[in-house]
Amino acid sequence: MAARTVKVNRPKKLSWSERIYLPAILQGLRLTWRHIVGERVTLQYPDEEKAFPRSFRGVHRLNKDENGRIKCVACEMCAAACPAHCITIKAQEVDWEDRDKVPKIFEIDELKCIFCGYCVEACPEDAIHMTSHYRLISRTREDMVFGLDKLLAIYDETKDEPTLRGVDFGDQRVLTKREHGVPANGPSDVQRMAYPAVGIVTKKAVEKTSH
Amino acid sequence: MISTPQLIVSLVLGLVMLLAMLAIAGLYTFYERKVAAWMQNRYGPNRVGPKGYFQFMADGIKFFMKEDVIPAYANKPVFLLAPVMIMVPALLLFTAVPIGMPFTWNGFEINLKITNLDIGILFILAVAGMGVYGVVLGAWASNSKYPLFGGLRASAQMISYELAMGLSIVAVVLIAGGLSLTTIIGQQTEYWFGIIPKWNVLANPLAFLIFLIATYAETNRLPFDFAEAEQELVGGYHTEYSSMKFAVFMLSEYVNMITMSMLVVVLFFGGWHFPGIELIGPTWLAVLASIAVFGVKTAFFMFLYIWVRWTFPRMRYDLLMRLSWKVLLPVALANVLVTALWLAFIQ
């Protein structure tokens, strides 16, 4: 079988102005001049910081509900979903009207964490979010194991900031089973049918569910 | 005999220019990084000092503090001699260049130049030729393969392009009627039709082009930087040098660049002359203006060095030699012939 060939039309000889290279040289100089007077794309880091989208996966926080109580019910879905096994949970019994369990110990080792966001996706109570804070500094490894107090404190600091959220409860439709044989009307339909537990994150969806 | 005021002016100028050359070369390294960065859509060094201007001082301190390594099998005396052999000619070159308008003071005619050589251009060519020694000695004395390659290529390249450089200068000398740089500038202060200055770039643009290309090759700058071709030869002839000796190589390269820019300005762009200088007359203002104008013109050519370096790829070595021997040399010879005939029959 003959190989597929493409015929390229190249002139046999360079023209006179191409052979002395001077016009091409001037063209090249003009190009770099436009870069010299153009703008720089560098971000001057400590003075300027990049603005992250809402879905940026920074440090975790544990959410509180309207009454100031922790939302987490210590079901350990996040610990099970975590690929790095960095979440340690110990539950304790409580006697509230809507909850039986709250965590006694909830530790995330931020050094082991790979910031994948699976814990946020797995949580059924919308209790764990990821903020846009990324500058985690400490002098010892032990300091980077964030406990309940630290994770709740991060919530107090970042209450009003947009964060990465998991399943959105409220008036967003959540499908519990796949719809087989139903044709899709577009990419959002495909996403909705393939990932029934996850809400569609579109602009409209975000506006509808933002509180 | 040289008059006393001229002697004093020359000595002071010599000292000032020596220090100024080294300082400007340091600043030039900084500007090279800045302009290179701008061409690549980034900022250059801008953290050390205000806007990064102290970067070259930080580099200088770094060079002093580094460990001085001499390879065990290197030829030690020659190894130590090579940076000297390249720095001294570089610092000698600017002594023949006049930087401002000559003026009279109390009846003495004072030229703003350090030496009053009648053979100015010849002296410059000779001393620039000695700069090749530094490169070659450094390469051989290092006793290592990368410097060897760099040095061999560099020596062949520098010698070939000196021919083209010399021939283009011959054309200028023919027009000027003398070897001294003062004469060459003096000839360029006249005007055609009263308004267009007789700068050699307009009188003989081909010679200007040849000379410009030849100076890029002489100072081992891209597109002809085989001596140090970083992508191919690690460091070329200065691979094995560390700390201050390397700093001397680097500084001498930049001093050479500054001097070559000055030469281009003097030979082709009228030196310190600008049209309309006679209107101000031989006053202090004119002298200062002439020095400033010379500085601006030289600065433009120094910028051109950086601009060209970061725009073009390196030439292949055999094509580089072909350019010198088969293109520049015949063109330069033809240029000399045509200039000589023109001057003989038309002037």
Per-chain topology:
The complex is a heterodimer of chains A (211) and B (347).
Chain A: H1 16-19, H2 22-36, E1 60-62, H3 77-81, E2 87-93, E3 101-109, H4 118-122, E4 128-130, E5 145-146, H5 148-157, H6 187-194, H7 203-209
Chain B: H1 4-39, H2 55-65, H3 76-92, E1 103-105, E2 108-110, H4 120-141, H5 145-176, H6 181-188, E3 191-192, E4 196-197, H7 200-203, H8 205-218, H9 230-233, H10 243-268, H11 277-280, H12 284-309, H13 317-345
Antiparallel strand pairs in B: 1-2, 3-4
How would you characterize the overall build of this protein?
By secondary structure, chain A is an alpha+beta fold. Chain A is built from 7 helices and 5 strands; from the N terminus they run ααβαββαββααα. Among the domains of chain A are: 60-157, Alpha-Beta Plaits, CATH 3.30.70; 168-211, no CATH class. Chain A has helices at residues 16-19, 22-36, 77-81, 118-122, 148-157, 187-194, 203-209, and strands at residues 60-62, 87-93, 101-109, 128-130, 145-146. Chain A has a 3-stranded antiparallel β-sheet with strand order 2-3-5. In chain A, strands 1-4 form a two-stranded antiparallel ribbon. Residues 168-180 and 196-202 of chain A have low confidence and may be disordered. With 347 residues, chain B is mostly helical. Chain B has one domain. Chain B contains 13 helices and 4 strands. In chain B, a hairpin with a 3-residue loop joins strand 3 (191-192) and strand 4 (196-197). In chain B, helix 5 (145-176) packs parallel to helix 13 and helix 10 (243-268) crosses helix 12 (284-309).
Structural class category of chain A: alpha+beta
Tell me which protein chains meet in the greatest interface and how many residues each side has.
A-B, 15 and 14 residues
Spans where pLDDT lies below 50 across 5 or more residues of chain B: none
> What is the quaternary state of this protein?
heterodimer
According to DSSP, the number of beta strands of chain A is 5
Structural class of chain B: mainly alpha
First CA to last CA of chain B: what distance?
Answer: 34 Å
Overall average pLDDT of chain B: 86
- Low-confidence parts of chain A: 168-180, 196-202
- Report the strand count of chain B: 4
In order across it, which strands form the biggest sheet of chain A?
2-3-5
- In N-to-C order, the SSE pattern of chain B is HHHEEHHHEEHHHHHHH
- Strand fraction band of chain A? 5-15%
Question: Helical percent range of chain A?
Answer: 25-40%
Largest sheet of chain B: 2 strands, antiparallel
Over all CA atoms, what is the radius of gyration of chain B? 21 Å
